[in-house]
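Final report, closing paragraph on structural work. Over the funding period we assembled a curated collection of sequence-structure pairs, and we close with a single example.
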Amino acid sequence: MNPILLAIIVVTVIGLIGAVILVAASIFMYVPVDERVEQITAVLAGANCGACGCAGCADYAKSVVEDGNDVNKCIPGGAACAAKVAEIMGVEAGSSVPMKAVVACSGTCDKAGKKYEFQGIQSCQAVKGLYGGDGLCKFGCLGYGDCTRACAFDAIHIVDGIAHVDRAKCTGCGACAAICPNHVISIVPEHKRKPVVLCQNKDKGADTRKACTAGCIGCMKCAKACPKEAITVENFLAHIDQDKCVGCQLCVKECPVGVIHVPANE
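Its predicted structure, as stored:
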């Protein structure tokens, strides 16, 4: 027999045998999948951000169907997404509090000084590895945009040297907070009146002022002005207990360096 023809026949037979094996395996090893998993995956935000506590959207959908996970954990999808998932599962959606990213730093280019000019890879992680960053404030936003590249919704950008959140686009997925090497970004419940301290500097007031004119100096004026004792000062840095805060904003008026802001008003 012609060697070429023989080779063709052998390859064809092997292919057919392999096809039969694959078909048999797909039949005998088939695992039924609840169609609700695919339906829920289709209505989720598709960010695969992990804010729900699962590895991704498909994993979360599976946990809702098979393990009874809450239907309102898709932070980027918000209340509308929760309602769709609840409809598929035939349950009540429950309340879903919108979440937003907040950058706890006010050290813009004109307020924060630099130790050196960085000429390396334009990455926060890269500059952080070189003497803790190029800024005089070792606690502030590094400003090289790792968070902007992590955001799937184009909701965060570097403006005047620090990260700035577009609250209209922000879904609160937490991708920016997870990648920030200085941990200046946090995800907090959306509100209309409650202020936050936009600083992370824990140095003494005098040292803070040398590094950044917009840093918290731990003067305690905000704590003294708060009628609900919602503000404490620890390590020369003010902290607002959002559960106690009633949004009177007296702290905003009293802060001598203007580091306390109401994010919704930015």
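The mean pLDDT is 92. The beta strands are 99-103, 156-159, 162-165, 185-189, 196-197, 231-234, 237-240, 260-261. We thank the funder for supporting this effort.
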